[in-house]
DNA sequence: ATGGCTTATTGTATAAGA
């Protein structure tokens, strides 16, 4: 039996909303040491680029590109391999919030996204989320033409189905699960993207985020809102996709935990 | 239970996250 680690050529890509890289850098370095993925996409770095820990990441063997801002948002791609054609944001969509960064790694277009949370259905932030998702859809349509081998990793702030929510009845109509958000997610899939986690059998009640409050993690009151979408060309290469809950058990964890995709190439 | 944690801020209470 082949095990994943014995496959001749694999590329591992992961995504992790770290909720402040300033606070979480030790966790990230620790995690990379035991999970030496090829690519790690980060969201919510919450720091300006001048504070980004390029040196520490370089010492750990990673190139890094970052688009950050103080206090909020901020996205980065770490890679063991050279990155090319780095781009920032969604082309043609003016946005002061730093939520998208892209780069090509080993011939694969890697897009790291931190999709808007939306706060509540009746808020202006939710309207912004809808506009943002519309723009993302339009942009990805063009990106897929340009880069057939494409992967979109990040915090989507959308639980695509009821099984991605610990208590669907309690969450009906709420942000993260509302019908318009889920319709947007389906529209992304309609572009020819696949939710790589669902290409495989998975444990029931698999989540990637748990509320800090109410002992959410201990009770597994979570949501699956961090996703890795792959293009048609990459779909046959998907070997496994898992959620690694280990970092969520650490002292002072991020409220999100990493999702990892392994490609056989 | 409109709370409950955690992070960051020209902070000592507020905003935001999800």
| Dominant shape | globular
Strands side by side in the biggest sheet? 3-4-2-1-14-13
Structural class label: alpha+beta
What summary fits the major beta sheet?
A: 6 strands, mixed
Order of helices and strands: EHEHEEEEEHEHHEEEEEE
Strand content: 25-35%
* Multimerization status: single chain
Query: Percentage of helical residues?
Result: 10-25%
Note the gap between the termini: 18 Å
Q: Figure out the total of helices.
A: 5
In total, the number of strands is 14
* Rg, Å, rounded: 17 Å
Average predicted confidence as pLDDT:
96
Which consecutive residue ranges, at least 5 long each, have pLDDT under 50?
Answer: none
What do you see in this structure?
The protein has helices at 21-34, 54-59, 124-146, 168-171, 179-190; strands spanning 10-17, 39-43, 63-67, 75-79, 84-88, 100-105, 108-114, 150-155, 193-195, 209-210, 222-223, 226-231, 238-243, 259-264. It is α+β, with helices and mostly antiparallel strands. The strands form 3 sheets. The chain has a 6-stranded mixed beta sheet. Strands 5-6-7-8-12-9 form a 6-stranded mixed beta sheet, covered by helices on one side. Strand 6 (100-105) and strand 7 (108-114) form a beta hairpin. Helix 3 runs parallel beside helix 5. The chain binds one DNA strand of 18 nucleotides through residues 19-20, 22-23, 44, 46, 70-72, 117-119, 125, 157, 174-176, 209, 211-216, 223, 225, 252, 254-255.
